[in-house]
Fold this protein.
Amino acid sequence: MPAPHLRPDHACLIVHGKDQPGIVAAVSALITRNRGNIVAFDQYSDDPTGGAYFQRVVFHRPDLAAALPEIRADLESTLASGFDLQWSLTDQSTPKRMAILASKQDHCLLDLLWRHRRGDLPVSIPMVVSNHTTAAEDVRSFGVPFFHVPSTPGPDKSASEARILDLLAGNVDFVVLARYMQILSPEFLERVGVPVINIHHSFLPAFIGAEPYRKAKERGVKLIGATSHYVTSDLDEGPIIEQDTVRVTHADSAAELARRGADVERQVLSRAVLWHAEDRVIRHGNHTIVF
Amino acid sequence: MPAPHLRPDHACLIVHGKDQPGIVAAVSALITRNRGNIVAFDQYSDDPTGGAYFQRVVFHRPDLAAALPEIRADLESTLASGFDLQWSLTDQSTPKRMAILASKQDHCLLDLLWRHRRGDLPVSIPMVVSNHTTAAEDVRSFGVPFFHVPSTPGPDKSASEARILDLLAGNVDFVVLARYMQILSPEFLERVGVPVINIHHSFLPAFIGAEPYRKAKERGVKLIGATSHYVTSDLDEGPIIEQDTVRVTHADSAAELARRGADVERQVLSRAVLWHAEDRVIRHGNHTIVF
Amino acid sequence: MPAPHLRPDHACLIVHGKDQPGIVAAVSALITRNRGNIVAFDQYSDDPTGGAYFQRVVFHRPDLAAALPEIRADLESTLASGFDLQWSLTDQSTPKRMAILASKQDHCLLDLLWRHRRGDLPVSIPMVVSNHTTAAEDVRSFGVPFFHVPSTPGPDKSASEARILDLLAGNVDFVVLARYMQILSPEFLERVGVPVINIHHSFLPAFIGAEPYRKAKERGVKLIGATSHYVTSDLDEGPIIEQDTVRVTHADSAAELARRGADVERQVLSRAVLWHAEDRVIRHGNHTIVF
Amino acid sequence: MPAPHLRPDHACLIVHGKDQPGIVAAVSALITRNRGNIVAFDQYSDDPTGGAYFQRVVFHRPDLAAALPEIRADLESTLASGFDLQWSLTDQSTPKRMAILASKQDHCLLDLLWRHRRGDLPVSIPMVVSNHTTAAEDVRSFGVPFFHVPSTPGPDKSASEARILDLLAGNVDFVVLARYMQILSPEFLERVGVPVINIHHSFLPAFIGAEPYRKAKERGVKLIGATSHYVTSDLDEGPIIEQDTVRVTHADSAAELARRGADVERQVLSRAVLWHAEDRVIRHGNHTIVF
């Protein structure tokens, strides 16, 4: 995976739909006639005899911004009309706007803020929203706005969710749940209108739901893990972006599992965020294609 | 973990029971007064304020065989009577006798036979039993007896299980299921009287039961794994000895997952077998302590 | 990496040379006009502003064999003449012919033979050549010819190397040194005329030369590794195809390092052989691009 | 490895010297007669027939502080006089004082400060010393004093080293070089009088010295690594405490290697610091025993 810096005059084109002969040729001819030079090309068909087709192309094109409307029109007529494919084109000089939702645990939150400051994540961070105030000072020391939205007591989260939706509306391109300990309602997920990425502190599908480290200790596993996935209305069942594991022993308490798992969580989440921000991840049903 | 070769005049002592002050001192004094010199010592308490205590000691003692009755009497009076602890003592110059049960898939079976021939497993292999004949020639080329016990059709496995129990009775110290595709009945497990070690082709507790690679493909996981565990009457729920994982991608078919998983399976199983053969694994409820 | 089986009517095209705009478009148009459908496409430029360009395309083409001369002529005029690029085209229904050279250690040798028998390596194995006779029976039990070529005593290896060259000439597409303990002369490497792949039992460039496990023990490393590389006349300095490591501790003797390293060696070598056999590896100076 | 919190009334005893029969019995009897209860016990002999012996025992003893002089006297007469062994005893309720030396790169520095704030490192941090001012504000936001000691230009570092020695003298129990880019003189190492731990950004002994990521890119390795070791006057040759590796590809630039390596560096260093702080690491010549 190349360096994540924002690249002027580079565009990323995602194409997917029904596999058909000639897609690669059509896409590359289109890029060539629009004076682009391909710098990265990934392609995948889940069934060469007629399944789904996925493609990611990064190309360099001088004066990209001026040319975008023309390129988009060409894509629409060539791919959408000609091949019945879906496509999206993003300008890689524009960072995606990422909101972070967090609770008391700050390791994933601080890790993202710090990677962003180092220039390792091609995103902007317009806000952190938390149902606790503990991280406010830390977040603001990174120059990032912090909003405290207390969780509404009781099962009806609609008031606090409405407040969060107000903050997000129009301001963000995706949301990251950095160990956010509230379950978002299906209504929230429908209304938020942007992808939501979660980090779950187990190797899914093992230990779905609450307290996975305690459950891992009870089951006596020899590895623990973490999973980053897109959030859907099925808890911990959304498309997996990235996972990893680390070795533990009988001597590790549940608290020690949590301590060691924290390292895996922040690495897995940071890779998922990076890949999403670089348009490397395509959702397909409950799966992801990661180029 | 030191080299697994059989070691003359070395004994392995396992002690477990309720944690109490003075166990280490009592055990080490016992070994010293029986003219043993400790070469490896591992100890674990699951709760220092009064939980369960586990200890593994390997000691060298000239003329061990002659001294064993005396040492055993001393252990019985010191540990069993004095501390109410359970103990077992094995002579490390005597290989454990391992039977292998297999079906059509031969990768775990052949891997164990190879490692044994290389001198990497401190066991003897008195027999391989399979419900298929495909591996007969390979097994016998290693100088190991092969017995074909066809599975009884229908849900009642008692006839074939009885045949297997006849073969095993008195001849083996533990049994390894090297991708044996029959579910053993609770009656079999009760009557077999020796530990049974299985390799399951998933990272348990994910993908319990049949066809874990197909399920892994359907869930879209980014790692696959394998788990070796002691067999209990709860399918895939016994105490875990060892696990490992390997990275896969969206491009890997279920068949490719099976091909890559086969490497993890044989490594995980060979480690579990080695550790069991070296008396490194202590069962405690549904957990294992692996020293 | 998809399944390694031989695929009828599939061709693999490798293209490399100076990066220029329009290569992807030209190649994909060429495949389309020759009635091929692209099933895998990988591309890499080491410097988008004008470095070296590498591409691997697998395409399906009904009646491929009959069409190959025409496709080759088109490649020659389009890529070689038009773009000054190098190309090679292989028919993926034809297995590469792999000779294995071995010595006394048999773990890498047997692992390759066994993977081949399982259908996991898309190669044929016309011969195993060894300077010892120990593995003869094992090799022949896999239906593979075994030739014993004793090493010539003294520094001049020319007699035994000449004998090996006679056996290989015209019969093999690549050679694998599966822990072959003789250093091949520059003359041999020049005359053999096919790629030679070695497995070195260390994480290169650490512990070049003889006895890497002893050196690893002396240095007190906490991981050991293995490296598979193309052989050049600079000992252990050729282009690396694949590497891996495994954790060890202070308690592991040099013999134990060798035992555990054997597992890493056979995995690393088998991956390197698979990727070479699938035309996934492109050499570029002292580097490899692995698609 | 159990949780790293400071534990009142727990002592850690390290014993090493020439292996002799009866050491375990003598040590455990000593602890028992001093009313201690052993909670962890690790032991290693590098040669059971008469090599070096290493032991780490953690025991709980009510009113430990009051009993320490008596226990120390017993250790001196029993182990030093009786067995000619070296020993050290530390009170595990007292954190070790750790100074951090850093330069411009802040990832290892900030990682240690974060882990400390989370309670994951049983140390106190009396100071950070840097030859740059960039991290001053960050460091002080953790409540840790920051001292700027500019590097003396030219080969003679004695002025800046003298300044650093003044700051450290009497105030610290060990020093961590968190990507400190100055080579410390043998005189400094002699005068500092406490262990110095470094993180090197390669898998030693590969890529000793400057710019290991550039060298790794040039060699074309498929894994990069990091190594934490005690500093000696031989650059990058001191006893290794911990190492790890991560997979890279041909597509990763040297800058990308550095970015990904940063994650490995901070994990490897944090583990080395934790184990040193918990008295798990014993130096023996150029090796470490890590319990």
Q: What stands out?
A: The mean pLDDT of chain D is 94.
